[in-house]
Amino acid sequence: MNDRHAQHLQPLNPLAVRLACREERLSSHTNGLAPGHVQGNLVLLPKAYAFDFLLFCHRNPKPCPLLAVSEAGQWALPAMGQDLDLRSDLPRYRVWESGALIDEPTNIVSYWREDLVGFVLGCSFSFEEALVEAGVSVKHLSCGVNVPMYRTSIATEAAGIFSGPMVVTMRPMRAHDAIRAIQITSELPRVHGAPIHIGDPGLIGIRDLAKPDYGDVVSLEPDEIPVFWACGVTPQSVLLQSKPTFCITHAPGCMLVSDWSQHVSVFCYVIHSLVILQLV
Description:
Elements: H1 14-22, E1 37-46, H2 47-59, E2 66-69, E3 93-97, E4 100-103, E5 116-122, H3 125-133, H4 139-143, E6 149-155, E7 165-173, H5 175-185, E8 197-198, E9 225-230, H6 234-242, E10 247-250, E11 256-261, H7 273-279
Antiparallel strand pairs: 1-5, 1-10, 1-11, 2-5, 3-4, 3-10, 6-7, 7-9, 8-9
């Protein structure tokens, strides 16, 4: 897989990042791109599963903080961005059938179905800028790699067919940075909020930090402690266990970059009553 992380896109606006994805000039992780704007995880499910997944998100707000829901068959989300196309505007996708990963394309036009409902979930990439602005070191950003992600022994709360283990991201931090990170992220519940665990990874079922399930390895120095946040890749872990007949997600680290500003009060549910009625 020849992933392209377009460092030159960083100062550009979110639309430029989305167009780079659409034109296949960007096919790797989006952390550090379009500073100041909200990024989101993506799950696309047939309408038959949509209400159960909506309920799953409601019951598991730490790993699945819901930002927006589309109507069935709607690939545009104008509330989240100008000229936004869910079929092509992420760097890379994952296509699943009955819990099996069958493809990792850079666009999903050929897989699109008129019964698909899109769910956009908050992403921890959106709080990293706040950490950096506060002087907290975010190691994977300085290393230019994707954040490491791990499946844990923490069970999510089931809803319909959906259940399975939580996925977490890990960021090595010195103790004083970890304290500040907790303070900052506690104020951002729509992008996973405060960490769910600090310290010994074995206590949450992680055997080896050098072997992430998703993302890249980031080393842990003797004066650093691992800090774990709930992660929006959790639905992909849940898919392996729940096995819906069809689903599309973002590839880990390859997010939807929205026009929403992190400095505006946009971390709210964008769910119209009409959409809710259509999912029931």
